[in-house]
Write a structure and sequence with these properties.
Distance between the termini of chain B: 39 Å
Number of helices of chain B: 4
Structural class of chain A: mainly alpha
Largest sheet of chain B: 16 strands, antiparallel, barrel
Mean pLDDT of chain B: 84
Radius of gyration of chain A: 23 Å
Low-confidence stretches of chain B: 1-41, 162-194
Radius of gyration of chain B: 28 Å
Strand order of the largest sheet of chain B: 11-12-13-14-15-16-17-20-21-23-24-25-26-29-30-31
Shape of chain A: elongated
Oligomer: heterodimer
Strand content of chain B: over 45%
């Protein structure tokens, strides 16, 4: 019996040694070269994303990999309603909602995001969310932005480290997707 | 979308990419038996050797078999007086038995030695008469002193010309019908011997279904041809039609998807004597995945085929892409990842005794590239929540408690795998027992054991039935976590390696099933047409996972095979 156990151990040992002398560490951590997260830098981007992508039947859902919070869709505080217009009982997107959207967006592809940011934002097309928004990759919402239009500039300028707030403000004027039959952009 | 290949096989089972082609070893014969009598041999076949042969004239070999085994193939291994090695020749199925002509080019004055082996459907030698140390012997003379021997119902073979008797040309002519003069009138039986290749084809329909809402329907076709010179060629083509709404898909708010995968293989082996070489290739294509590869191997027999070794190397390349809504796929030029794979294997098959065979195979696979699933995003939890995540936590629970960041899966960019597999087959009275054990390890830390047993029972001459059992257990890879932690309080601090692939986690699977094979050919050759039905059920317990803790699955296959 002991011989058999030794033989089994020897066989297991030989298979292990062939597979590799060392194994992948279990606890490696990785950081991220992240784009600016301040309210000043990301706030306009977050507002645009909320307007264009964050409706409750798109990325304004808790089950999505890319979650977008904001006054036009999913709210962080359950007491808040998806309404920006204060006269209609709504409330503007909060900094916390911007930050939560930021973490969801930046955390999607940590390695690729680091590459893009470290490269000064020269190659935003490496990011899946940019590819999808441009329609270069299959996207259920279709192609929503065109390279060089205000929406695209809003995003890519943020990735490059200097958010073009004018472009983001203009981008807000693009219709909400999907378009709502009523005026949801008042305020 | 890419169907998780792990659904059908564990990580360990999926590790091996190069098929091991091991020529079936000769069945050992009880060496305590005396040499076979010249007129009528002992062994499993009934055979009366020709009383004499003539130089440059094919030697007929005809055997009959009345045993209980289901023979798929019968061969004669012969060695003429001037031959240094044994040569193999397939016997054709003739009325009431099996027969062939030993090519005239190999028939020289002196003793012609040969023995006969029969193989079952699985390629195992299950019957024999004579062996290398105890063969039948036909004295070959310059001229016949009596009647020329011949196959039943056929004319005696003619003598080859001098030119014919050399090399392969002589072999070709020897198997050809005679043309003029005495014994040269072609007739049906000899014309039938012209085509000495055995051809086979099969079609199969397999259906897989599991409790995670994955269904795979796989029709396939296989064809093969074996030539008496030791050459064989095999090809296959299959289509996987996958429909899935697994928890991995639903958890990302995606809906059921369907896709089709097509795969083809082509392989050849040339093994005229005790040394052979083989090459093969495969290609697999689905909307978001392209894989192609090739392999080469060498096979060498020792000790009169009591030992057979195999060494092979294979290489493959995968291109991993991504598809999206409505099945629209992103061109590989926009998004793709490359995965290259090199595979080495070495095998040793050996005869234990006259009813037992065994083999051991070592496979080593080195993979380079990013094989992370481009669809799989991994939920992150805060340090305070992670320890509270229950095993099998529901989608809703995870969505309500995870952090906003949900990064893509990231696996190490290199993987070294090794597997050691042992096979054992033993012929019992009216049945055959087959056992297999595989030990697997890789440098991701996954250690696995797979045990498989099959006991095939004969039910008369036309039916076989077998129970089948399989048990698999594995540890997780080192970086496996049920709940990964993102240290969001300190900026970005994520686990470098993260996965949601359950086939990389700790699990065990137990399965069992039944198989039934029916031989539908005529009485002379019942195995010409074969219908096979198999059904297996599997239960898997996932020991440390999100979303699911168990999975039940069924796999059934219906196969129809014919010898053409």
């Amino acid at each position: 019996m002991r011989r058999r156990a030794i033989a089994v151990a020897a066989v297991l040992g030989s298979v292990r040694s062939v597979a590799g002398c060392s194994t992948v560490p279990s606890d490696l951590r990785v950081g991220l070269d992240a784009p600016n997260s301040s309210e000043q830098d990301f706030g306009p981007v977050g507002d645009y994303l909320d307007h264009r992508c964050g409706s409750l039947d798109c990325h304004g859902q808790i089950g999505r990999n890319l979650r977008i919070w904001g006054c036009e869709g999913m709210r962080l505080n359950a007491a808040d309603i998806p309404q920006c217009n204060r006269q209609l009982g709504g409330k503007s997107t909060t900094p916390s909602e911007h930050q939560t959207t930021y973490r969801s967006l930046v955390g999607l592809e940590p390695a690729v995001m680091s590459t893009v940011v470290a490269g000064g934002g020269l190659h935003p097309e490496l990011l899946t969310f940019v590819l999808k928004a441009r329609g270069t990759e299959s996207h259920k919402g279709g192609a929503l932005i065109t390279p060089g239009d205000p929406q695209d500039v809003c995003i890519t300028s943020w990735l490059a480290g200097s958010t073009n707030t004018m472009a983001c403000a203009t981008a807000i004027g693009f219709p909400m997707f999907p378009a709502l039959p009523t005026d949801a952009s008042a305020e | 979308m890419s169907f998780s290949r792990g659904t059908l096989a564990t990580a360990a089972a999926a590790a091996l990419t190069v098929s091991v082609v091991v020529a079936p070893p000769a069945s050992a014969r009880d060496r305590s038996k005396p040499a076979p009598a010249a007129a009528h041999a002992d062994g499993d076949f009934t055979h009366t050797p020709a009383p004499e042969g003539r130089a440059n004239t094919s030697v007929p070999v005809y055997v009959e078999y009345a045993g209980t085994e289901k023979l798929a193939r019968v061969i004669v291994k012969y060695r003429g007086a001037q031959m240094e090695e044994w040569r193999r020749l397939d016997l054709k199925h003739l009325s009431g038995g099996w027969g062939a002509l030993i090519p005239c080019g190999d028939v020289a004055p002196g003793p012609m030695r040969y023995y006969v082996q029969g193989f079952d459907e699985a390629g195992d030698a299950v019957s024999t008469s004579g062996d290398p140390k105890d063969p039948f012997i036909v004295p070959v003379l310059d001229e016949f002193t009596g009647d020329a021997p011949h196959l039943p119902g056929l004319r005696p073979p003619r003598r080859c010309s001098e030119d014919d008797s050399r090399g392969d040309k002589g072999e070709e002519r020897a198997a050809s019908p005679p043309q003029t003069g005495e014994g040269t009138v072609p007739h049906k039986g000899e014309a039938g011997l012209e085509d000495t290749a055995s051809k086979r084809a099969s079609i199969e329909l397999a259906v897989y279904n599991d409790s995670d809402h994955v269904t795979v329907v796989t029709p396939s076709v296989n064809v093969g041809i074996d030539n008496v010179s030791g050459a064989s060629l095999n090809g296959s083509y299959l289509v996987d039609v996958v429909s899935a709404a697994s928890v991995d898909i639903v958890s990302t708010a995606s809906s059921r998807w369907q896709e089709v995968r097509q795969a083809g293989t082509l392989s050849g082996l040339y093994k005229p004597h005790d040394f052979g070489v083989g090459v093969g290739g495969s290609v697999s294509r689905e909307p978001d995945y392209l894989s192609y590869g090739g392999y080469a191997l060498v096979v060498k027999d020792f000790d009169e085929k009591n030992w057979t070794t195999t060494f092979g190397y294979g290489a493959s390349h995968d291109t991993i892409g991504r598809c999206g809504a409505g099945g629209a796929c992103t061109p590989f030029s926009v998004f793709s990842r490359d995965l290259s794979r090199g595979s080495f294997n070495g095998g040793l098959a050996f005869v234990i005794d006259r009813i037992s065979l065994a083999s051991v195979t070592l496979d080593v696979v080195i993979e380079n590239g990013d094989q992370s699933k481009p669809y799989r995003y991994i939920p992150m939890f805060s340090p305070g929540v992670a320890p509270t995540v229950p095993k099998g936590a529901s989608i809703d629970w995870v969505n309500a408690n995870r952090l906003p960041e949900r990064p893509l899966e990231q696996l190490p960019l290199e993987r070294h795998r090794a597997a050691l597999t042992g096979h054992y087959a033993r012929r019992l009275d009216g049945s055959t027992l087959r056992l297999e054990e595989r030990l697997y390890n890789d440098d991701w830390g996954l250690l696995a054991s797979t045990t498989d047993a099959r006991w095939v029972f004969d039910l008369g001459s036309r039916f076989e039935i077998w129970p089948h059992a399989r048990f698999h257990a594995q540890t997780s890879v080192t970086f496996w976590q049920r709940a990964y932690v993102s240290e969001s309080a300190t900026g970005w601090n994520l686990p470098e390696y993260r996965t949601g692939d359950r086939e990389l986690g700790p699990l065990w699977t137990f399965g069992g099933g039944l198989g039934l094979r029916m031989y539908l050919g005529n009485d002379a050759n019942p195995q010409r047409w074969t219908l096979q039905l198999t059904w297996d059920g599997m239960y898997t317990s996932f020991l440390d996972d999100l979303y699911v803790t168990e999975r039940t699955a069924t796999l059934g296959a219906l196969t129809f095979e014919g010898q053409l």
